[in-house]
Amino acid sequence: MTIGICNDHAGVDYKNSLVQYLRNKGYEVVNFGTDTPDSIDYPEVAHPLADALLAGKIDLGIAMCGTGNGMALCLNHHKGIRAGIAWNPEVGRLVKAHNKANVLVMPARFISYPEVEAIVDQWLTAPFEGGRHQRRIDAIEP
Predict the structure, then answer these.
(1) CB 101 within 8 A of CB 84
(2) Tell me: the pLDDT tens digits for 94-136?
(3) What's the pTM?
(4) Which residues have CB under 8 Å from 124's CB, separation 6+?
(5) Hey, which end of the chain has fewer CB within 10 Å, N or C?
(6) Which domain holds residue 127?
């Protein structure tokens, strides 16, 4: 499985650690984010990740910025992207199980790095529950 990661300056340190963590678990990782703490605008990295996901070049995406809101807003403008913000492992599980999120967004300034790994693990392993949740997903993009 190939996972794309994008981040702005707020998520650089977490992204670098997470890339290694995911590679150690056997995932291929494509970096769409910045590698420096110099300020950038999140759309610069969010749009390329969304485009790659929609083109089938990656299987899932992970995005990080200060609050997670900027990335989620930008990513969700792409038809077919379902970016969900998670700030703890249970929410990470639910954005996949209930919302079928194909991009996990995390607020780098409000969670610790150990929480990042726990959230990612829950999101990656959660199955989509379907049923009433599928009906709601279908209603997002009529």
Answers:
(1) yes
(2) 999 999 999 999 999 999 999 999 999 999 999 998 889 988 9
(3) 0.95
(4) 60, 96
(5) C
(6) 2-140
